């Protein structure tokens, strides 16, 4: 079994000595040329990655906060979600879910405090 790799950036059907049209070769990319690097590409990528991490962390903290430590995890999820949205995360949906779960954590906490009169609660009743 043989694996054949096709280089789609070079045209093999028209030889340069046969008068191939150079207008067709405008989209051809020279793979031997050194790639241009943006001088500030690394900091931008780090900020985007950090914002994505904040969105995921807010979602996870909001989800866990529904079960335990909602007095701590709820506000943390809200703050992390807002920071992720301010920093223009690519995971906006996850940041909004983290924000809504953080608010839900505080709503569950408020409902349990009014029902029991205490911040401590247990699943078993």
UniProtKB/TrEMBL annotation:
InterPro entries attached to this UniProt entry: YqfX-like
Ranges that cross the membrane: 59-84, 96-123
Location of the region described as Disordered in the Swiss-Prot/TrEMBL record: 14-44
Key words of the record: Membrane, Transmembrane, Transmembrane helix
Protein known as: DUF4190 domain-containing protein
Organism, scientific name: Streptomyces globisporus
């Amino acid at each position: 079994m043989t694996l054949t790799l096709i280089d789609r950036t070079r045209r093999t059907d028209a030889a340069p000595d046969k008068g191939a049209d150079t207008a067709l070769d405008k989209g051809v990319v020279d793979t031997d040329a050194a790639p241009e690097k943006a001088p500030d590409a690394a900091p931008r990528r780090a900020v985007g990655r950090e914002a994505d991490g904040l969105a995921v962390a807010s979602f996870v903290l909001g989800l866990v906060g529904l079960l335990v430590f909602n007095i701590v995890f709820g506000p943390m999820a809200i703050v992390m979600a807002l920071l992720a949205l301010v920093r223009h995360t690519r995971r906006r949906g996850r940041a909004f879910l983290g924000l809504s779960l953080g608010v839900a954590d505080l709503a569950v906490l408020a409902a349990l405090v009014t029902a029991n009169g205490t911040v401590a609660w247990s699943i078993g009743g």
